[in-house]
Amino acid sequence: MQYVIGVDIGTQSTKALLVDGDGTIIAKHSVGYQPDTPKLLWAEQWPLVWFDAVLECIARCVEQAREQGIEASAIRAVCVSSLYGGSGIPVDNDIKPLHPCLIWMDRRATAQVDQVRESVDLERLYAITGNGVDSYYGFTKMLWLRDNRPDVWAATRYFLPPNAYVIYLLTGEIAVDHSSAGNIGGVYDVGRRDWSDVMLDMLGIPATMMPERLVESTDVVGSLLSQWTARLGLQAGTPIVAGGVDAAVATFAAGATRVGQHVAMIGTSMCWGYINQTVDARNGLISMPHVFNGRRDMYVFGGAITAGASVTWYREQFCQAEVEAARALPHGDPHVLLEEAAARVPAGSEGVMFLPYLMGERSPVWDAKASGAFIGLNLVHTRAHLYRAVLEGVAFALRHNIEAGRKGAQFLDDKLIVVGGAAHSDLWMQIIADVTGYPVYTIEQEVEAAMGAALLAAVGTSLVTDEVARGGWARLVERARPDADRLALYSDRFEVYAGLYPALKPLMHRLQAMPDSTRGR
């Protein structure tokens, strides 16, 4: 029997698992951490935090495998996927990090967005890149570094996505997978599957800062250096496979390899995406080559910045009673108590609604100055109402993206697959079914993007065929079917949800501009 290791570097944790050629999980390990948020709407991470977590996760998986009698020689490959690294890591000529990576969540580049909109031919940018202009995109974050950290900019040799940087440390080889390159936006020609010299020149970003070698997500970038063998327990020369952006990799893990299949990944953020072969940036979604058959297929997606993060925020700020009560229970999980209470609240939360814009918002709103809000509060509402409203608000954000996606999709499958931490919640899965109108399926296994990375490793080293990969290893389980009455109720509520942001936008922006705000100090 032969095995592969899949690693996923996430926003709040890194996960790894070792699987056999049938996708059976033999070993797994995770390491948690938090991104740095030194200022309001900033989010960054020093890359060695990720690398240390990757080393620990791989080593622990290999150790667990060894305890089961699996030798290092039986481990065929390692693949590394990662969060969308925004700007990427600016490194010098010695490939040493010069500055923390400005990750996807970071929204500081608002002035650069304005500059691009004023000085660049936007229609040409849309046509070449298949993407729009927002502080979410890595190219605007690069411009922020240029304008605000000139010493870093002057010393930068490359910008490396998180998985590419980790793979460089493991192999000594520099390469960027096409999904990570495309997700930068602005600088990648989606039609040619290459960097765009035209857009780099328009934006004033030297082409030399983009690594020359672009690879497929299933390509072997290089071999494990001997300096890591003792630390990891792997053999020197073990192939390291390129991987890709975690949302696309999780979509691949869920078995989405053909046009029309669509998956929602709901963890810290929410990414809903589908497989297509054409893109139109004017629909307000993000696009990149898919991690499987990426020369042909595109992964087109949109998402909310603070999905699970909204739930975590609400629990930590307002639910100390449930947190304390859970300590005395066998499961120790306050979410169980919160969901039991929220399940007794009627659909629609008796009139209260939540906008999950706690770090601005991505698609289809695209507004770094958008802010979160509870609307419709009155004295009847309890913490349970508000908790349910948070779950419903994220589900409305999901539907908002699905409605935008329908404009460019050839078609969408008649079922929605959900992966990520939200899939643990029966209540949330039912709410999503009732809000979107789709039957909801989840993956039987708990690990998603890491499983997709393992499958990419298996494809890249011919442990499995492309035919097997198209079907995937995932075992899907039906979790919820939409209820007709609740669907009708939520459809009415969705019209209100979609109208709230345009109505509140001027006031949100006015608050952001007030001098007594922390934003103005």
UniProtKB/TrEMBL annotation:
GO terms for biological process: carbohydrate metabolic process. Keywords: Kinase, Transferase. Residues 264-459 form the Carbohydrate kinase FGGY C-terminal domain. Residues 3-252 form the Carbohydrate kinase FGGY N-terminal domain. It holds the Pfam family FGGY_C. GO terms for molecular function: kinase activity; phosphotransferase activity, alcohol group as acceptor. Belongs to the FGGY kinase family. This is Xylulokinase. It comes from Trinickia soli.
